[in-house]
């Protein structure tokens, strides 16, 4: 796992960085001079970045083979919080029918970082379908059906959907979606680690859209990091509250 030896006294690796694929300046960003020093540690910024094995950066990119393995394991293990969150979502849908404001908190999923690559995690997530769960699959289907039934009865209004979407993206622009059938809010920023973070709040409410005709009116709250989806919340909208002008 340890790709290079590090000297903590000098704050430098004792050998230059290297990659399996031959590259004169591996893992470098030409717009960042600090990344061109093959002997430095995390671009001379150890307070906000880590490099556990000498290769992988703090964004889960540019990783060694072992980081891809760790990412794949993390992707598979995410089936646990995803299953728990499915149960919690059903519980929250039921709670929304009462007067209480309490909501069951969602369990955090494992995210790509300096120890787990984003590519490996995507592979592990795709491999979840191979996990033998026996009769549990039937129970999951029944649970999903119960959640959808509760969700339909607790659909939010279009006005509330607009408020939630605005809070999710926190600025940005309103635009038509790719097919021009619905509107969405979108905001793209760059975080302190250099990640490109895009947040979208999409109003899928146009009955002429085949997707809406199949799934019903709903709000999608999406988050992408460096082009990869890391979150997508689906919230039903009461179609009776959709107003003229809410669609292009």
Radius of gyration, whole Å: 22 Å
Spatial order of the strands forming the largest sheet: 3-4-5-6-7
Largest sheet: 5 strands, antiparallel
Class from secondary-structure proportions = alpha+beta
Mean pLDDT: 75
Give the low-pLDDT segments: 133-139
Helix coverage percent = 25-40%
How many beta-strand segments?
7
Could you give the order of the helices and strands? Answer: EEHHHHHEEEHEE
Number of H- or I-type helical stretches: 6
Regarding quaternary structure, what we see is single chain
Task: Estimate the global geometry from the Cα principal axes.
Answer: elongated
Distance between the termini: 53 Å
Structure description:
It is a single chain. The protein is an alpha+beta fold and 248 residues long. Among the domains are: 74-153, no CATH class; 158-241, no CATH class. The chain contains six helices and seven strands, in the order E-E-H-H-H-H-H-E-E-E-H-E-E. It has helices at 65-77, 79-95, 118-126, 136-153, 158-169, 210-215, and strands spanning 6-7, 12-13, 173-176, 183-190, 196-204, 218-225, 228-236. The strands form two sheets. It has a five-stranded antiparallel sheet with strand order 3-4-5-6-7. A two-stranded antiparallel sheet has the order 1-2. Helix 1 (65-77) crosses helix 3. The protein is elongated and about 65 Å long. The termini are far apart.
Keywords, please?
6 helices; two-stranded antiparallel ribbon; 248 residues; 7 strands
Can you describe this structure in just a few lines?
With 248 residues, the chain is an alpha+beta fold. The chain has helices spanning 65-77, 79-95, 118-126, 136-153, 158-169, 210-215, and strands spanning 6-7, 12-13, 173-176, 183-190, 196-204, 218-225, 228-236. The protein is elongated and about 65 Å long.
